[in-house]
Amino acid sequence: MASIGSKQWNNVMSLRKRRRSVSHRCQTFLNIKLRFFLSIASCCFAIIVVFRSVLGVSVGSGGHLVGVEDLSPTTRNKRSESSLGAIVLLAPQRNEGSIWEISRFCMLLRAVRSIDHHLNRQFGPYPIFILVAKDYKLDPKGKDAVYTPRDRALLQNWAPNSTIHFQEVNLYSEDALEPNVTAEEISQWRAGKNGGIAGRDIGYQSMCRLWSGRLQSMSFLDGFTYYLRMDDDSLFTKDFAFDPFQRMKEENLEYVYRRKAKDKWGIRELWKVSKPYVDLNRQGTIPFLYGYGVNRRYGGSQPYNNFHISTVSFWRSKKWSLLWEDMNRNHLFFKYRVGDANVHAIALMLMKNGSYAMWPEVPYVHNSNDYSSWGKKAWKEECDLAMSNG
Q1: Which residues share a beta bridge with 227?
Q2: Number of H helices and number of E strands within the chain?
Q3: How far apart are the first and last CA of the chain?
Q4: Are 201 and 140 contacting, i.e. CB atoms less than 8 angstroms apart?
Q5: In 3D, which of 324, 316, 216 has the Cα closest to residue 270?
Q6: Radius of gyration (Cα) for the chain, nearest Å?
Q7: Is the Cβ–Cβ distance between 171 and 135 less than 8 Å?
Protein backbone atom coordinates (compact mmCIF):
# COMPACT_ATOMS: atom_id res chain seq x y z
CA MET A 1 0.00 0.00 0.00
CA ALA A 2 2.84 2.38 0.80
CA SER A 3 4.53 1.85 -2.64
CA ILE A 4 1.23 2.40 -4.54
CA GLY A 5 0.50 5.64 -2.60
CA SER A 6 3.98 6.95 -3.41
CA LYS A 7 3.52 6.24 -7.11
CA GLN A 8 0.21 8.04 -7.22
CA TRP A 9 1.71 11.00 -5.42
CA ASN A 10 4.51 11.26 -8.00
CA ASN A 11 1.95 11.21 -10.83
CA VAL A 12 -0.04 14.02 -9.24
CA MET A 13 3.07 16.18 -8.80
CA SER A 14 4.12 15.58 -12.42
CA LEU A 15 0.68 16.61 -13.67
CA ARG A 16 0.79 19.83 -11.64
CA LYS A 17 4.20 20.73 -13.11
CA ARG A 18 2.90 20.24 -16.67
CA ARG A 19 -0.14 22.46 -15.93
CA ARG A 20 2.04 25.21 -14.47
CA SER A 21 4.29 25.10 -17.54
CA VAL A 22 1.33 25.43 -19.93
CA SER A 23 -0.15 28.27 -17.84
CA HIS A 24 3.17 30.12 -17.84
CA ARG A 25 3.49 29.86 -21.64
CA CYS A 26 -0.08 31.15 -22.13
CA GLN A 27 0.48 34.07 -19.78
CA THR A 28 3.73 34.98 -21.56
CA PHE A 29 1.94 34.93 -24.94
CA LEU A 30 -0.89 37.16 -23.66
CA ASN A 31 1.57 39.65 -22.14
CA ILE A 32 3.44 39.95 -25.46
CA LYS A 33 0.19 40.58 -27.35
CA LEU A 34 -0.96 43.14 -24.78
CA ARG A 35 2.33 45.06 -24.98
CA PHE A 36 2.09 45.01 -28.78
CA PHE A 37 -1.40 46.50 -28.87
CA LEU A 38 -0.50 49.11 -26.24
CA SER A 39 2.51 50.17 -28.33
CA ILE A 40 0.34 50.54 -31.44
CA ALA A 41 -2.23 52.64 -29.54
CA SER A 42 0.49 54.86 -28.08
CA CYS A 43 1.99 55.48 -31.53
CA CYS A 44 -1.41 56.38 -32.99
CA PHE A 45 -2.08 58.86 -30.19
CA ALA A 46 1.35 60.48 -30.68
CA ILE A 47 0.75 60.85 -34.42
CA ILE A 48 -2.59 62.58 -33.79
CA VAL A 49 -1.04 65.00 -31.29
CA VAL A 50 1.82 65.89 -33.66
CA PHE A 51 -0.59 66.26 -36.58
CA ARG A 52 -2.79 68.77 -34.70
CA SER A 53 0.21 70.62 -33.26
CA VAL A 54 2.00 71.08 -36.59
CA LEU A 55 -0.98 71.96 -38.74
CA GLY A 56 -2.90 73.94 -36.15
CA VAL A 57 -6.22 72.46 -37.25
CA SER A 58 -8.84 70.18 -35.81
CA VAL A 59 -10.69 67.35 -37.47
CA GLY A 60 -14.43 67.73 -37.80
CA SER A 61 -16.97 64.97 -37.31
CA GLY A 62 -17.03 64.38 -41.06
CA GLY A 63 -13.27 63.94 -41.23
CA HIS A 64 -12.58 67.30 -42.90
CA LEU A 65 -10.08 69.86 -41.62
CA VAL A 66 -11.58 72.79 -39.79
CA GLY A 67 -10.18 76.30 -40.38
CA VAL A 68 -11.04 79.81 -39.18
CA GLU A 69 -13.95 80.17 -41.61
CA ASP A 70 -15.23 76.62 -41.07
CA LEU A 71 -15.65 76.27 -37.32
CA SER A 72 -18.83 74.73 -36.04
CA PRO A 73 -19.67 74.25 -32.35
CA THR A 74 -18.68 70.82 -31.08
CA THR A 75 -18.62 69.05 -27.76
CA ARG A 76 -15.25 68.24 -26.26
CA ASN A 77 -13.95 67.29 -22.83
CA LYS A 78 -12.49 70.36 -21.12
CA ARG A 79 -9.16 70.49 -19.33
CA SER A 80 -8.77 72.18 -15.98
CA GLU A 81 -8.71 75.97 -16.19
CA SER A 82 -5.50 77.90 -15.59
CA SER A 83 -5.45 80.66 -12.97
CA LEU A 84 -2.46 82.42 -14.55
CA GLY A 85 -4.63 84.60 -16.76
CA ALA A 86 -8.23 85.51 -17.55
CA ILE A 87 -9.73 86.64 -20.85
CA VAL A 88 -12.27 89.44 -20.47
CA LEU A 89 -14.86 90.79 -22.90
CA LEU A 90 -17.52 93.43 -22.41
CA ALA A 91 -20.72 92.19 -24.02
CA PRO A 92 -22.25 94.61 -26.52
CA GLN A 93 -25.70 96.05 -26.01
CA ARG A 94 -27.80 92.97 -26.72
CA ASN A 95 -29.89 94.43 -29.55
CA GLU A 96 -27.22 96.66 -31.04
CA GLY A 97 -26.83 96.44 -34.81
CA SER A 98 -23.77 97.55 -36.74
CA ILE A 99 -22.70 99.25 -39.95
CA TRP A 100 -21.97 95.79 -41.35
CA GLU A 101 -24.30 92.93 -42.28
CA ILE A 102 -23.85 91.28 -38.91
CA SER A 103 -25.22 92.21 -35.45
CA ARG A 104 -23.00 92.85 -32.45
CA PHE A 105 -24.22 89.69 -30.72
CA CYS A 106 -23.17 87.65 -33.73
CA MET A 107 -19.77 89.34 -33.60
CA LEU A 108 -19.50 88.32 -29.96
CA LEU A 109 -20.15 84.70 -30.93
CA ARG A 110 -17.32 84.79 -33.43
CA ALA A 111 -14.95 86.54 -31.02
CA VAL A 112 -15.55 83.88 -28.36
CA ARG A 113 -15.08 81.10 -30.88
CA SER A 114 -11.79 82.56 -32.10
CA ILE A 115 -10.48 82.68 -28.53
CA ASP A 116 -11.53 79.10 -27.94
CA HIS A 117 -10.09 77.74 -31.18
CA HIS A 118 -6.89 79.75 -31.56
CA LEU A 119 -5.84 80.08 -27.92
CA ASN A 120 -7.66 77.78 -25.50
CA ARG A 121 -7.60 74.74 -27.76
CA GLN A 122 -3.84 74.75 -27.42
CA PHE A 123 -2.93 76.62 -24.23
CA GLY A 124 -4.52 77.02 -20.82
CA PRO A 125 -7.41 76.75 -21.16
CA TYR A 126 -7.97 80.20 -19.73
CA PRO A 127 -11.39 81.19 -18.39
CA ILE A 128 -13.44 83.61 -20.48
CA PHE A 129 -15.34 86.27 -18.56
CA ILE A 130 -18.12 88.13 -20.35
CA LEU A 131 -19.42 91.25 -18.62
CA VAL A 132 -23.12 91.98 -19.18
CA ALA A 133 -25.14 94.95 -17.97
CA LYS A 134 -27.43 94.23 -15.06
CA ASP A 135 -28.89 97.76 -15.33
CA TYR A 136 -29.66 97.36 -19.05
CA LYS A 137 -33.07 99.00 -18.62
CA LEU A 138 -31.30 102.32 -18.02
CA ASP A 139 -29.58 102.35 -21.41
CA PRO A 140 -30.66 105.75 -22.86
CA LYS A 141 -30.49 104.35 -26.40
CA GLY A 142 -32.80 101.46 -25.50
CA LYS A 143 -30.54 98.98 -27.32
CA ASP A 144 -29.40 96.97 -24.33
CA ALA A 145 -31.38 94.02 -23.00
CA VAL A 146 -31.01 90.89 -20.91
CA TYR A 147 -28.69 88.14 -22.08
CA THR A 148 -31.05 85.20 -21.80
CA PRO A 149 -30.12 81.67 -20.73
CA ARG A 150 -30.44 80.72 -24.40
CA ASP A 151 -27.95 83.46 -25.41
CA ARG A 152 -25.50 82.29 -22.78
CA ALA A 153 -25.86 78.63 -23.73
CA LEU A 154 -25.21 79.49 -27.38
CA LEU A 155 -22.04 81.39 -26.48
CA GLN A 156 -20.81 78.44 -24.41
CA ASN A 157 -21.63 76.04 -27.24
CA TRP A 158 -19.34 78.00 -29.55
CA ALA A 159 -16.44 77.55 -27.11
CA PRO A 160 -16.15 73.78 -26.46
CA ASN A 161 -12.60 74.01 -25.06
CA SER A 162 -13.40 76.85 -22.66
CA THR A 163 -15.58 77.75 -19.72
CA ILE A 164 -17.47 81.03 -19.98
CA HIS A 165 -18.33 82.97 -16.84
CA PHE A 166 -20.91 85.76 -17.04
CA GLN A 167 -20.37 88.73 -14.73
CA GLU A 168 -23.27 91.13 -14.25
CA VAL A 169 -22.13 94.71 -13.71
CA ASN A 170 -23.62 98.19 -13.82
CA LEU A 171 -22.94 100.15 -16.99
CA TYR A 172 -25.39 103.07 -16.71
CA SER A 173 -25.77 103.72 -12.99
CA GLU A 174 -24.27 103.58 -9.49
CA ASP A 175 -20.62 102.42 -9.52
CA ALA A 176 -20.48 102.73 -13.32
CA LEU A 177 -20.51 106.51 -12.87
CA GLU A 178 -17.92 108.81 -11.36
CA PRO A 179 -18.58 109.43 -7.65
CA ASN A 180 -21.00 112.21 -6.75
CA VAL A 181 -22.27 112.60 -10.32
CA THR A 182 -25.80 112.04 -11.55
CA ALA A 183 -26.94 110.63 -14.87
CA GLU A 184 -28.60 113.96 -15.62
CA GLU A 185 -25.32 115.86 -15.17
CA ILE A 186 -23.63 113.40 -17.48
CA SER A 187 -26.35 113.85 -20.10
CA GLN A 188 -25.69 117.60 -20.04
CA TRP A 189 -21.95 117.09 -20.47
CA ARG A 190 -22.50 114.58 -23.29
CA ALA A 191 -24.58 117.24 -25.06
CA GLY A 192 -21.68 119.71 -24.78
CA LYS A 193 -23.26 121.77 -22.01
CA ASN A 194 -21.78 123.02 -18.72
CA GLY A 195 -18.22 122.78 -20.02
CA GLY A 196 -18.50 119.21 -21.26
CA ILE A 197 -17.02 117.92 -24.53
CA ALA A 198 -19.91 116.64 -26.65
CA GLY A 199 -19.83 113.28 -28.32
CA ARG A 200 -20.09 109.70 -27.17
CA ASP A 201 -23.03 108.58 -25.03
CA ILE A 202 -23.01 107.47 -21.41
CA GLY A 203 -22.65 103.80 -22.36
CA TYR A 204 -19.49 104.38 -24.38
CA GLN A 205 -17.87 106.59 -21.75
CA SER A 206 -18.81 104.05 -19.09
CA MET A 207 -16.93 101.47 -21.14
CA CYS A 208 -13.87 103.75 -21.26
CA ARG A 209 -13.95 104.16 -17.49
CA LEU A 210 -14.45 100.42 -17.02
CA TRP A 211 -11.19 99.52 -18.82
CA SER A 212 -9.27 102.31 -17.07
CA GLY A 213 -9.22 100.84 -13.57
CA ARG A 214 -12.73 99.89 -12.54
CA LEU A 215 -12.67 96.44 -14.12
CA GLN A 216 -9.20 95.58 -12.86
CA SER A 217 -10.40 96.08 -9.29
CA MET A 218 -13.39 93.74 -9.58
CA SER A 219 -13.33 90.68 -7.35
CA PHE A 220 -13.70 88.13 -10.16
CA LEU A 221 -10.05 88.87 -11.08
CA ASP A 222 -8.83 88.03 -7.57
CA GLY A 223 -6.36 85.18 -7.84
CA PHE A 224 -5.36 85.92 -11.46
CA THR A 225 -1.95 87.34 -12.32
CA TYR A 226 -2.91 88.70 -15.75
CA TYR A 227 -5.97 89.58 -17.78
CA LEU A 228 -6.34 89.82 -21.56
CA ARG A 229 -8.83 92.19 -23.17
CA MET A 230 -10.83 91.27 -26.25
CA ASP A 231 -13.77 93.13 -27.80
CA ASP A 232 -16.89 91.65 -29.35
CA ASP A 233 -15.91 93.17 -32.73
CA SER A 234 -12.49 91.52 -32.81
CA LEU A 235 -11.00 88.14 -33.69
CA PHE A 236 -7.95 85.98 -33.36
CA THR A 237 -7.28 84.86 -36.93
CA LYS A 238 -4.91 81.94 -36.44
CA ASP A 239 -3.36 79.80 -33.74
CA PHE A 240 -1.04 81.47 -31.24
CA ALA A 241 2.58 80.41 -31.66
CA PHE A 242 3.12 80.88 -27.93
CA ASP A 243 1.18 81.05 -24.68
CA PRO A 244 0.74 84.81 -24.15
CA PHE A 245 0.33 84.57 -20.39
CA GLN A 246 3.38 82.34 -19.97
CA ARG A 247 5.40 84.72 -22.13
CA MET A 248 4.31 87.65 -19.96
CA LYS A 249 5.56 85.74 -16.94
CA GLU A 250 8.85 84.63 -18.52
CA GLU A 251 9.66 88.15 -19.76
CA ASN A 252 8.51 89.77 -16.50
CA LEU A 253 6.15 92.16 -18.30
CA GLU A 254 3.39 94.31 -16.85
CA TYR A 255 1.72 95.36 -20.10
CA VAL A 256 1.63 94.26 -23.74
CA TYR A 257 -0.18 95.74 -26.74
CA ARG A 258 -0.10 95.12 -30.49
CA ARG A 259 0.22 98.54 -32.14
CA LYS A 260 -0.06 102.27 -31.54
CA ALA A 261 -2.78 104.78 -32.37
CA LYS A 262 -3.66 108.40 -31.59
CA ASP A 263 -6.65 110.20 -30.11
CA LYS A 264 -7.27 113.78 -29.06
CA TRP A 265 -10.39 113.88 -26.90
CA GLY A 266 -9.76 115.45 -23.50
CA ILE A 267 -5.99 114.99 -23.63
CA ARG A 268 -5.28 118.49 -22.27
CA GLU A 269 -7.34 117.79 -19.16
CA LEU A 270 -5.92 114.25 -18.92
CA TRP A 271 -2.33 115.50 -18.96
CA LYS A 272 -3.09 118.27 -16.49
CA VAL A 273 -4.36 115.71 -13.97
CA SER A 274 -1.74 113.03 -14.73
CA LYS A 275 1.47 115.07 -15.08
CA PRO A 276 2.18 115.36 -11.32
CA TYR A 277 2.24 111.54 -11.08
CA VAL A 278 4.79 111.04 -13.89
CA ASP A 279 8.51 111.22 -13.06
CA LEU A 280 9.68 113.48 -15.90
CA ASN A 281 13.27 113.45 -14.58
CA ARG A 282 13.77 109.72 -14.81
CA GLN A 283 16.46 108.30 -17.04
CA GLY A 284 15.61 106.87 -20.42
CA THR A 285 12.56 107.35 -22.57
CA ILE A 286 9.06 107.75 -21.27
CA PRO A 287 6.54 106.14 -23.63
CA PHE A 288 4.09 108.29 -25.59
CA LEU A 289 5.67 111.61 -24.56
CA TYR A 290 7.56 114.07 -26.74
CA GLY A 291 10.15 116.64 -25.73
CA TYR A 292 12.88 116.42 -23.08
CA GLY A 293 13.11 116.44 -19.30
CA VAL A 294 10.48 118.36 -17.39
CA ASN A 295 9.28 119.92 -20.64
CA ARG A 296 7.99 116.62 -21.97
CA ARG A 297 4.37 116.74 -23.12
CA TYR A 298 1.59 114.38 -24.01
CA GLY A 299 0.08 114.68 -27.49
CA GLY A 300 -2.43 111.83 -27.61
CA SER A 301 -0.31 108.89 -28.79
CA GLN A 302 -1.55 105.67 -27.18
CA PRO A 303 -1.50 101.87 -27.23
CA TYR A 304 -4.29 100.44 -29.38
CA ASN A 305 -5.64 98.77 -26.30
CA ASN A 306 -8.64 96.92 -27.75
CA PHE A 307 -6.20 94.05 -27.39
CA HIS A 308 -3.86 94.18 -24.44
CA ILE A 309 -2.56 92.00 -21.63
CA SER A 310 -1.65 93.44 -18.25
CA THR A 311 -0.98 92.47 -14.69
CA VAL A 312 -3.94 92.83 -12.36
CA SER A 313 -1.65 94.07 -9.60
CA PHE A 314 -0.54 97.26 -11.39
CA TRP A 315 -4.09 98.61 -11.53
CA ARG A 316 -4.53 97.89 -7.82
CA SER A 317 -1.26 99.54 -6.80
CA LYS A 318 -1.22 102.65 -4.66
CA LYS A 319 0.36 104.80 -7.37
CA TRP A 320 -2.42 103.98 -9.81
CA SER A 321 -5.20 104.13 -7.22
CA LEU A 322 -4.27 107.72 -6.31
CA LEU A 323 -4.28 108.83 -9.95
CA TRP A 324 -7.52 106.91 -10.60
CA GLU A 325 -9.22 108.82 -7.80
CA ASP A 326 -7.96 112.12 -9.21
CA MET A 327 -9.24 111.23 -12.70
CA ASN A 328 -12.69 110.55 -11.33
CA ARG A 329 -12.67 113.65 -9.15
CA ASN A 330 -11.98 115.75 -12.25
CA HIS A 331 -14.67 113.98 -14.30
CA LEU A 332 -12.29 113.06 -17.11
CA PHE A 333 -14.47 110.29 -18.51
CA PHE A 334 -17.96 111.75 -18.58
CA LYS A 335 -17.26 115.47 -18.84
CA TYR A 336 -14.13 115.59 -20.97
CA ARG A 337 -14.67 112.45 -23.07
CA VAL A 338 -11.30 110.91 -22.21
CA GLY A 339 -10.85 107.47 -23.73
CA ASP A 340 -9.38 104.39 -22.10
CA ALA A 341 -6.51 104.07 -24.60
CA ASN A 342 -5.21 107.52 -23.63
CA VAL A 343 -5.50 106.52 -19.98
CA HIS A 344 -3.47 103.38 -20.73
CA ALA A 345 -0.77 105.56 -22.26
CA ILE A 346 -0.52 107.34 -18.91
CA ALA A 347 -0.39 103.96 -17.16
CA LEU A 348 2.64 102.93 -19.22
CA MET A 349 4.39 106.17 -18.21
CA LEU A 350 4.18 104.98 -14.59
CA MET A 351 5.65 101.55 -15.36
CA LYS A 352 9.36 100.76 -15.30
CA ASN A 353 11.25 100.78 -18.58
CA GLY A 354 11.38 97.25 -19.94
CA SER A 355 8.18 96.16 -18.20
CA TYR A 356 6.01 96.84 -21.27
CA ALA A 357 6.28 95.65 -24.86
CA MET A 358 4.61 95.72 -28.26
CA TRP A 359 3.78 92.36 -29.87
CA PRO A 360 2.83 93.08 -33.49
CA GLU A 361 2.88 89.35 -34.26
CA VAL A 362 -0.27 88.65 -32.23
CA PRO A 363 -2.84 87.22 -34.72
CA TYR A 364 -5.52 89.78 -33.86
CA VAL A 365 -7.84 92.00 -35.89
CA HIS A 366 -10.25 94.69 -34.72
CA ASN A 367 -13.21 95.05 -37.10
CA SER A 368 -12.64 96.77 -40.44
CA ASN A 369 -9.75 98.76 -38.96
CA ASP A 370 -7.63 95.64 -39.48
CA TYR A 371 -9.78 93.29 -41.62
CA SER A 372 -11.17 94.51 -44.96
CA SER A 373 -13.88 91.84 -45.32
CA TRP A 374 -15.25 92.29 -41.81
CA GLY A 375 -18.92 91.45 -41.24
CA LYS A 376 -19.52 89.79 -44.59
CA LYS A 377 -22.84 88.23 -45.47
CA ALA A 378 -21.67 84.64 -44.86
CA TRP A 379 -21.04 85.52 -41.22
CA LYS A 380 -24.61 86.70 -40.80
CA GLU A 381 -25.99 83.57 -42.46
CA GLU A 382 -23.96 81.32 -40.16
CA CYS A 383 -25.11 83.24 -37.09
CA ASP A 384 -28.76 83.25 -38.17
CA LEU A 385 -28.63 79.49 -38.66
CA ALA A 386 -27.06 78.93 -35.24
CA MET A 387 -29.65 81.10 -33.53
CA SER A 388 -32.54 79.40 -35.32
CA ASN A 389 -31.25 75.99 -34.27
CA GLY A 390 -30.78 77.34 -30.77
Answers
A1: 86, 310
A2: 12, 15
A3: 89
A4: yes
A5: 324
A6: 30
A7: yes
